[in-house]
Amino acid sequence: MNNLKSQIQSPKLLDLSLTIEGVTEPVILGYFERLNAGDFEGTGALFAAEGAMLPPFESAVVGPDAIAAYLQQEAQGMQFYPREGIEQTLQDGYIQFQVSGKVQTPVFGVNVSWVLVLNPQRQIFSVTIKLLASAQELLKLRR
User: Fold this and answer.
1) Rg of the chain, C-alpha, whole Å
2) 87, 97 contact by CB (below 8 A)
3) CA 51 to CA 119: how far, in whole Å?
4) What is the pLDDT along the chain (143 residues), one digit of tens a residue?
5) Rounded to two decimals, what is the model's pTM?
């Protein structure tokens, strides 16, 4: 647990040379690098203690350990391809990043939008994941 605490306070980022047009924030780049590396514990460690992941069609997942466990169960075999993003300063030192891209699962690919909010300590406060597909396209995925 002490090791996890030090990762949360000072996360070490991977060096996979990921680039997202319009985004240079190391924590955001590290989020996608770790997801693609299958390092779900490391991904969870980027979140604040009260940090939340809001996946599509599901309840919020709160806390680094719960997020890591959720990703371990749900994100196996996925590859994340963030393309571009924009940064917006919010109140009280929070920063919001809107990133668009694609997620490739073992069965299908889908366009996605991520809204990531960092707290003043540069920890992930929230990630909201939105599928960018028509209702008809989403229904095809269920079959």
Assistant:
1) 15
2) yes
3) 9
4) 334 334 434 444 444 578 999 999 999 999 999 999 999 999 999 999 999 999 998 999 999 999 999 999 999 999 999 999 999 999 999 999 999 999 999 888 999 999 999 999 999 999 999 999 766 666 666 55
5) 0.83
